[in-house]
Amino acid sequence: MDSVGASKEFNLFSGYHNIINGKLSSTEETRHGINPATEKPNPPVPVSTQQDVNDAVAAAKEAFKSWSKTPFSQRKNSIIAFSNALEQHKQEFSKLLTQEQGKPAQFALGEVAASIQWLRVLAEFELADETVMEDEQTKTVVRYTSLGVCVGIVPWNFPLQLACGKIAPALLTGNVLIVKPSPFTPYCGLKLVELAQEFFPPGVLQVLSGDDNLGAWLTNHPGPDKISFTGSTLTGKKVMESASKTLKRVTLELGGKDPAIICEDVDIEATASKANLLYLIVMLAFLNSGQVCVTIKRVYVHESIHDKFRDAMVKFTKTLKIGEGNEEDVFLGPVQNSMQYEKVKTFFSDIEKEKWNVAVGGKNDDKPGYFINPTIIDQPADDSRIAMEEPFGPIIPLMTWSDEDDVIARANNTKMGLGASVWSNDLDKASRIAQQLDSGSVWINAHVELDPRLPFGGHKESGIGFEWSSNGLKAYCNVQVLFMKKKV
Q1: Active-site entry in 100, 253, 324, 390
Q2: Is 253 among the catalytic positions?
Q3: Residue 373 and residue 435: Cα distance in Å, rounded?
């Protein structure tokens, strides 16, 4: 294993290694991701073994002894310095992100910028001791203490931003972290942690690349104290089951089936600005080719404006350009991987079988790459698959409503509860509806406006616990109540 140091030239486009105890680590077996726009292989990456997991956990436990005692201000400064280094390489990370994930260059650069922001904003939080009560005889203090070894399991849709959203709170609170990037998008994660080695002691921040065995090895291992997982609800349940064997703490940010409720008073005609209703609804439905856990997945439009709204939505959707992420003016890149591509295509197979009415899209071009045309299904049944399941691709249902109580019940009729939105010029009405929606985040006249200062998590089967904000930091801590008698 080779040491990683400030003097070593940092190259994002070659040499992908695990980082174990501050050193570059190779494996006998390798694999490679696929560029989803070309279906061509990306460079080889490690396939970690059980021994690699054991070594990383052992190094993390040793590093925790001193990192947990490092002054809070020093941990904060290390994270800020790391964010500055990431900013210096933002163009290269953006290019690599488009290559491995497929998202258009403008959105890849936006993800890098968000990653930097998440590191910096989360580093500004403090978890000071809280004096709950004090008098002449007694003092009671609530303290937040580090958990120990944490594992961050990162998905393939936002591999850089969601990694940074786990790194900052874990390390700031005195924990050590092993990052496991998705096997579909390992490249940015490996290079992110390699870059970080200049700013953190060996073993504080490590990364392991692997195949489908790696996640189970990490969640079953007796060493880690917490698992932070972002991904599908199905896999999240498996993570929770595995973690329960040793009572590891878990934070699970899982899938969503977000409803957007459009009221009859919205201004459909205002189409000149990129802040207008139609631009936002269409963009937020098809952002990242629909591969966003908290983007719009169902649209309920008031029946009195349905036809006009549908026609305008279709017209705008037809203007969206699909293609390889480095092409000019591309809005939709490919679906990230072949497995998800085949899953999304099953919804297209259902169109004829279920006799769905296609407002726009419905068919896909036969060409290289995992490309899916943005598709709107007009007024499917509430119990149809497209209305109930999360495709995680650019296909959405458009349904109508007339009664307020009924549309609230329909919006809540799902096992998911990640996000939701209400769109209306009547803020009293919008607020009344919004407060009855069973979701972790609810927006009025917006959607997917995320902020690291705010807690993010889901209700029901969309997750357990919260990430980001002071609440997210506390999820990386044990709570200790300290009782003091001032005199013996």
Answers
A1: 253
A2: yes
A3: 34
